[in-house]
């Protein structure tokens, strides 16, 4: 087990360095530069060169990369070219709001998608199965930004109780407002963005769970369990479901980067004060330090998520060993 862990950690390190190198190179090759936003439109070239020298943007790409990598190793993502604020502080200030939205959505999705997928598999070709299939096709085909616009126009406008932008009403906080009133106020702002994310995500996961469950219940050991006289409930939910969850564990490992990144477009549409607004603004302003911080943290969470998923396989399936 220790040998496997050492090998995986080394692989993760190599992958992260490779991703950072490719991202850094692509970002600098792309047209545009933060210098163009830091100087006036008709500024002389000498002024642009001076600004580029101050920020080290006149140095070769490999020199800039190793300088940035040295900062990251020390836990420093540098400062924003535009605002001058430490990048790590910018992320940590907005991270709780993104985690709040995406954690609620992830819990609801898994609590609903797994039972829906299992029921659809056990009632294959019934009206329930056909309804889930239709629901999955619609959910996967519908763009999130378009669904968000529909909800704003057809739901939020006729129902003014729902809010389409922000996180909470000014003055309503946990320190001076009754708890129940705070919860209701937060729900007014949470329902619309969460509904869009749940609808577009739960369909695919339920369909995925259905396919996995159908594959497992056709295995020989399931038929053997039925032949021994076990009840359908025991066969389906004690023997089949556990093995059917293996692919879901894989998807669960990818929830870490999703919790961090979430849906940037939805956060912009609903003016949710999370990381989406920061990321979109950084991309538009070619703020290299902020963009690289998002790429690095997202890649790190992805490889950690896949690593944790591999470890969860052992807990779900006793046949798997990493000795």
What does this structure look like?
By secondary structure, the chain is mainly alpha-helical. The chain has a domain at 95-270: MetI-like fold (Orthogonal Bundle). The protein is 74% helix and 0% strand. Helix 5 (87-122) crosses helix 8, helix 11 runs antiparallel to helix 15 and helix 14 (275-284) crosses helix 15 (288-316). The longest helix has 39 residues, at 179-217.
How would the blueprint of this fold be written?
Elements lengths: L1 H28 L4 H5 L6 H10 L6 H13 L13 H36 L4 H15 L2 H13 L22 H39 L2 H8 L4 H13 L1 H8 L1 H7 L2 H6 L5 H10 L3 H29 L7
Label the overall shape.
Answer: globular
Count the beta strands. 0
Q: What is the CATH class of the domain at 95-270?
A: Mainly Alpha
Low-pLDDT stretches are none
The name of the CATH superfamily of the domain at 95-270 reads MetI-like
What is the CA-atom radius of gyration, in angstroms? 24 Å
Q: What proportion of the residues form beta strands (DSSP E)?
A: under 5%
Distance between the termini: 5 Å
The structural class is mainly alpha
How many helical stretches?
Answer: 15
CATH topology term of the domain at 95-270? MetI-like fold
Q: What summary fits the major beta sheet?
A: none
Helix percent band: over 70%
CATH hierarchy: architecture of the domain at 95-270: Orthogonal Bundle
SSE succession: HHHHHHHHHHHHHHH
Q: Write down the overall mean pLDDT.
A: 83
């Amino acid at each position: 087990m220790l040998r496997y862990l050492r090998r995986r950690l080394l692989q993760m390190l190599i992958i992260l360095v490779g991703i950072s190198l490719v991202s850094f190179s692509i970002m600098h090759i792309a047209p545009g530069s933060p210098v163009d936003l830091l100087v006036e439109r008709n500024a002389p070239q000498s002024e642009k060169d001076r600004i580029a020298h101050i920020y080290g943007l006149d140095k070769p790409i490999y020199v800039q990369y190793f300088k940035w990598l040295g900062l990251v190793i020390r836990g420093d993502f540098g400062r924003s070219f535009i605002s001058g604020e430490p990048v790590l502080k910018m992320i940590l200030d907005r991270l709780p709001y993104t985690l709040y939205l995406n954690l609620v959505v992830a819990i609801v999705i898994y609590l609903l998608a797994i039972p829906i997928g299992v029921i659809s598999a056990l009632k294959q070709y019934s009206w329930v199965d056909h309804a889930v299939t239709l629901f999955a096709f619609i959910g996967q085909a519908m763009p999130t930004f378009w669904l968000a616009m529909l909800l704003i126009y057809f739901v939020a406008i006729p129902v003014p109780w729902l809010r389409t932008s922000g996180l909470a009403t000014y003055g309503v906080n946990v320190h001076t407002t009754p708890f129940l009133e705070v919860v209701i106020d937060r729900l007014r702002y949470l329902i619309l963005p969460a509904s869009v994310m749940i609808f577009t995500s739960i369909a695919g996961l339920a369909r995925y769970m259905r396919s996995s469950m159908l594959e497992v219940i056709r295995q020989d050991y399931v038929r053997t369990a039925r032949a021994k006289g076990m009840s359908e409930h025991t066969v389906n939910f004690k023997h089949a479901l556990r093995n059917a969850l293996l692919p879901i564990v894989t998807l669960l490992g990818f929830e870490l980067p999703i919790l961090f990144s979430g849906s940037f477009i939805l956060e912009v549409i609903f003016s949710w004060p999370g990381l989406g607004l920061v990321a979109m603004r950084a991309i538009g302003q070619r703020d290299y330090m902020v963009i690289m911080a998002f790429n690095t943290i997202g890649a790190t969470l992805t490889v950690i998520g896949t690593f944790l998923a591999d470890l969860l396989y052992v807990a779900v399936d006793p046949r798997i060993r990493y000795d």
